[in-house]
Amino acid sequence: MWKLLAVLVLAQAAAALRMGSPRVLTPFAERRALKVISGLMNFDPVSVRNVCKAAQAGGASLVDIACDAELVKVARSVTDLPICVSSVEPERFVAAVASGAEMVEIGNYDCFYTEGITFSAQQVEDLTRRTRELLPDIPLSVTIPHTLPIDQQVALAEALLAYSVDVIQTEGGMGAKPFSPGVLGMIEKAAPALAAAHEISRCVGSRAHVMAASGISDVTAPLALAAGADGVGVGSAINKLGDAIAMSFAVRRLVDAMDAARVAERVA
Questions:
Q1: Are 92 and 66 in contact (CB under 8 A)?
Q2: CA distances from 82 to 63, 156, 225 (A)
Q3: What's the CA gap between 41 and 233, in Å, rounded?
Q4: I need a labelling partner for 47 at 20 to 30 A (CA). Which of 168, 201, 235, 251 fits?
Q5: Which CATH superfamily includes the segment(s) 32-267?
Q6: 20 φ, ψ to 5°?
Q7: Considering the chain, what percentage of its residues have pLDDT values greater than 90?
Q8: Could you give the CA distance from residue 59 to residue 244 in angstroms, rounded to a whole number?
Q9: Mean pLDDT within 109-131
Q10: Does 177 have pLDDT greater than 90?
């Protein structure tokens, strides 16, 4: 019975998506997307609930949580923001979407790098193909591994367009080792993600949205927009704070920084 229900829910979601652009993509189209990430391997409902509350209070565009149907229900109980679920196992997406997830994401891969696991371009493309076979209409985000040389990152981004990928996410924070303190160190940490966002956005143009993630802060979020990204994803800079008020203020600083950058861009 539950399988039949899941099929019906997915069919309804697919029909809704065909009627127009889903709300989860609107902030990307307006180049103001701020995704707050709780972590691909974070299945702690208390932690996820707190991150989602902070994202809502701070004015984020969407939340990104681990791919689990019950966790989606936890997130939905405290926020009406669009929910993205992340995994490297496409089969897990189906139940999460049936529970209310509005976007699925392949990656990011930070938690795997610490275990010595990397992903090739072919592996990422295969994961994307399998995801599209299961969920042909759901908004799809795919992370480009920063372990690939920049030219191969661009080539992979181009290849992913064949699968109607909606958002291409860059990364790099785990591999970046800043040498300087303060603001300069923040820029050094974000540099790989910013460089990839610049090159990939030049390649894909308007065919897909680009999101910069890993090492992004309120200092570097405006730089991501200037580099060609349509939004940013932020995880540890927010959820490591622990305190709900501090997390909310961190989200608000990011929103304000991005808004100011967009105003300056229009004036210029």
A1: no
A2: 7, 27, 21
A3: 16
A4: 168
A5: Aldolase class I (3.20.20.70)
A6: 170, 175
A7: 79
A8: 14
A9: 95
A10: no
